[in-house]
Amino acid sequence: MSPKERSAPIGVFDSGVGGLTVLGGLRAVLPGEDLIYFGDTARIPWGIKSPQVVTQFSREICRFLERKGVKAIVVACNTASAAALPVLEQELSLPILGVVRAGARHAAQVTRTRRIAVLGTEATIRSRAYHRAIEAIDPGLRILGRACPLFVPMVEEGIVDGPLAEGIVEHYLGDLRGEEVDTIVLGCTHYPLLADVIRKVLGGDLQVADAARTAAMELKDLLEEQDLLNPSLGPPSEQFFFSDRTPAFQRLARLILPGIPEDMERVDVESEDFRS
Ligand code: DGL
Question: Domain spanning 3-98+213-275 has what CATH number?
């Protein structure tokens, strides 16, 4: 592998700013790597869209990242990992990995009661991608899927604790209390911000599967295997691209990744250049 390819950046994408939780995991596990993040804030939410549309958006973003010269791509979005990853793996010549297998692996490792709840968008739960990934690791594990469509707008409104947040968590997850679930997979980029309120509402000794960190560790192994780790000792660079910039998204970006630079670039996803 040439030194140029080793020092190329890693591309990370999501339907919005939530995937910055995964970028945080990559920073921690791969501190020497340059990162390019794309958040499709103009077209979020993806979690209520069809697999075909999510795949097409993902494909366009992967091409954009390829043109930026990335050496590997992380699909930080659970909905896209569930709907589009198999197609993207076939179409791209770069290493690409998603967060679903990582979340499934961590959950299967930590559960003691062998009962796991997977929380995600409607598209992710409907796809049963987490079910398949967990069953592939251990077919004896019992999996309960719960779509929680209000969780994304809640986080985007900054409602991550207090009575309103607790009520909504109770609405979606209250019935899990009788199910001996000891592990939950936060199968959506936004949900790590609700981990505390979910723990509070469900009580007990709940394990939370951390897809972001596990995905970063999987990527590290993959880069090592393919001799693609960045040998540079210089400080890593990070670039952020979004398809829309609004004060609300910028606020959430700062909440997830304090210190994120102000100079994020806007990319016009309607332009021919982006789509081609
Ligand atoms: N990023 C999406 C996910 O992880 C959640 C937001 C959306 O619906 O687009 O599933």
Answer: 3.40.50.1860
